[in-house]
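Help wanted!
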Amino acid sequence: MKFSLYRYDPEQDTKPYMQDYELPEQHIKPGMMLLDALLLLKEQDQSLSFRRSCKEGVCGSDGMNINGRNGLACITDLSSLRQPIEIRPLPGMPVIRDLVVDLTQFFTQYRNVKPYLINEEPCPEVERLQTPAEREKLDGLYECILCACCSTACPSFWWNPDKFLGPAALLQSWRFLADSRDLATDERLNNLEGPFKLYRCHTIMNCVEVCPKGLNPAGAIGQIKNLMLKRSL
Amino acid sequence: MSGAARTWLLQRFTAIYLTIFLLSVFGYMAWHGPFTFAQWQNWFAHPGMAVASMLFVIAALLHAWIGVRDVLIDYVHAAWLRLMLMALIALVLLTSLLWVLRALALAAGPMTG
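Answered by r_m:
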């Protein structure tokens, strides 16, 4: 099985290049994921660098660009991929080495939406309860694993990563706006004012297309825009 | 209402109006055409049509302004260059508005010659 991997070590290379690798067919087992193959390739070439941890699509460490499409290597079926399998780092982010990118900007934007429950009321004696209907509103929002596949697939985020929050952060913003226990709606919406943070989204939908967890950040952004309108009318 | 939300809403409303207007005008033309010049002039002289077409021009200019402004905010990051380009676009759009107003005023006025 043929691979073409993006290689870049800033300490040695003047610029990035693609390196071909081959995995002997006897190593390939049915149901094998891309990450398994990358780990075997790393046995061949120890200098190859990439992030991974849980191997089952929960930790969000091994987001990468696979044949032109962002995804998690650990839950991408090898047999589904056209050869040579072209692997590049997540687009638009500074490369630390090979497939490892610097996600500082991504997490700065994540922190900007205050991704935690804000409720200044005195703590009740029991948990803050929700009705099943209220809880249901958080489905499709809380499952985000922050793998950055969506934001780094978003052209608006590529052009303005410092000003536009990006789909991942905005999905989290809506996750707390939609939470019946959160009382900071106004403060959260105020923070999203202006032409950049929210309104650089032009519903390109790459985020929805690539999300390995099947979430819908564009839908969440639409909900925030609706809430913005409702508040102002 | 906040500026950004207003702009976003305006872009959608103008888009809806532009679609409805263009579909109706082209539909009417396909159904009743072809027109002679006199019929054409008569049609556009009708007060309803005059108001609708004036609204169309305003909606088109607003829609164009918001769209181009969006593109410039996306891609042009140097503030001075963006402002300059936006001023240029605004000038083009305002000139277009004056040009349309002049055309409409001439069309509404008595025919000379």
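OP: Thanks! One thing I noticed: DSSP finds four helices and no strands in chain B.
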